Amino acid sequence: MRAMGQNASMRVLSGTPASGGVARGPWVRIEPIREPEARTIGPAEVETERARLAAAAALAATELEAIAERVTADGHPDEGAIFGAQAQMARDPALASLAEQAIEERHLDAVGAVLEAGRELADQLRGLGDELLSARAADVRDVALRIARRAAGVPDAGPPHLDASSIVVAEDLPPSVTATLPRERLLGFALESGSATAHAAILARAYGIPAVVGVAGLLAALAPGEIAIDGSSGEVFIDPDAVASAEIERRAVQARQADAEARDEASLPAVTRDGVAVTLLANIGTPEEAPRAVELGAHGVGLFRTEFLFLERLTEPTEDEQVAAYRAAVEAFAPHAVTIRLLDIGGDKPIPYLPLAPEANPFLGVRALRLAATQPGIFLRQLRAAMRAALAGPVKVMAPMVADAGDAATLLSLAAQARAELEARGEPFAPIELGVMLEIPGAILVGHTYFSQLAFASLGTNDLLQYTLAVDRGNPALARYQDSLHPALLRLVREAVERAERAGIELSVCGEMAGDPVAALALVGLGIRKLSMAASSLAPVRRAIRGTDEATLRAAALAALDDASAAHVRARFRAIPGAAAAG
Length: 583
Ligand code: PEP
Ligand code: MG
Description:
The chain has about 575 residues and is α/β, with parallel strands linked by helices. It has three domains: about 10-35 and about 160-240, 3-Layer(bba) Sandwich (Glucose Oxidase, domain 1), CATH 3.50.30.10; about 45-150, Orthogonal Bundle (Enzyme I, Chain A, domain 2), CATH 1.10.274.10; about 260-580, TIM Barrel (Alpha-Beta Barrel), CATH 3.20.20.60. The protein is built from 21 helices and 16 strands. It has helices at about 45-75, 75-90, 95-105, 110-125, 130-150, 175-180, 200-205, 220, 240-265, 290-295, 305-310, 320-335, 375-390, 405-425, 440-445, 460-470, 485-505, 515-525, 540-545, 550-560, 565-575, and strands at about 10-15, 15-20, 20-30, 165-170, 185-190, 210-215, 225-230, 235-240, 280-285, 300-305, 340, 395-400, 435-440, 455-460, 505-510, 530-535. An eight-stranded mixed sheet has the order 1-8-7-3-4-5-6-2. Strands 15-14-13-12-11-10-9-16 form an eight-stranded parallel sheet. The longest helix is centred in the first third of the chain and has 28 residues, at about 45-75. The structure holds phosphoenolpyruvate and magnesium ion.
């Protein structure tokens, strides 16, 4: 914590950047919802408390379902789905049986028992060591607290109010509060705890408002007056003085300008100076990200990572829930296509409802499509949901971790089975296009044996680099190898382009490489015409493409195949006139 300027109460705190942009305004502190008093009981009260627990859980579930319906009817189906998932948790037998055990064995009343059960389940989720699942622990606590309050006879407080446009500050925000904050008055969030994957952070990114989380000492430092947050640097200014105000204003103007420029340019075609058009697509992880990607000019989704939908819960999302999530994205992008990736998980990401054996080397193990051998059901449900969502607009489905023709055949037969099941059910659906991710070098090298059976393929350069150079993609000690402009990777891209052309199928790139403006130029030079990236990369990549000639990029790409290192390749593309816009 640092004091500066003439203003005695001014403080600048640092947290984790969770959603970019700068906001300044009055703050509203949202207090945590208090836990009701619990007590111990005698043996004679066990039955009464069990009944009280069951009634409170049923009431909480009904309330949550009603909120889900109201929020959805108000035009926020994705936030509505959060409550739908919470309603399911309230009816979850795992929570109920843990609570009943606490009543019977630890002699807690219904209030104490359900709070205890919520804590235990949340600890289990956090103990799995996965960031997304840890963030979902907040949902479990939230639901348990609601049940406890109903058991204690405390009524529902209703959605929070903001009298004026404000920055919301809190220790943490339970999803049930976050999702009902009035969007039109919400300038941003600053949270003392929380992670970048918390609901508040996800919502802020979807709304395009700034958020900073994990700000140690935030609540104690709050002072009367305004606060400002910089969601890109992670700074929170409390009661900013004149000097800080000028700096905040400068950053706000800069952020607004960058945002306005990105939006203004959104409708410009991504075409090189010599007239070669490139299609820019978005990578998304939740349907909430779709509207912003559309605004920034994405012509469809090249990668919808569906793991988030599956990881954020204690039970598998039902087929209907998946249809709703996929359809929300499809509707946002229609008439452009949304590419849904089948679940890409393995032993490194434990899921409570999916038994995965721990493996010594999960990135080379039974992950992603390889799970279909023992757990085809999860992929069949995904495929059926995708086919049903295709009624709302064009849908493509791709399988991750495909190694060869055998894996492609697995995808095709799963899709045929899913289709037959929908037909047998009399369920309406529409055709989808099928494709694979190319993230294993072998899958490219034998592409000629199966590409023609598919509609498309997409290069997942993050894993492709990892498997090509035997480099753990998350290990900072191996940074030297982690530039995807490595000539070995470029050679694989060229192979993929040639084989896809020969088979007459579409090829795109959806790894981070596509969103790096310099690397995007190399990909265009290698013949790639579809790039899929995080929404925030769309404007810089479009600028880079519009500033260069394809003929120059093609010549540079050819020469780069013989370069000795990624650094050489990067320098080569940076030196191209017009590529300066690529940074
Ligand atoms: C990739 O591997 O390049 C990719 C896009 O998938 P993910 O980053 O989700 O593994
Ligand atoms: Mg991958």
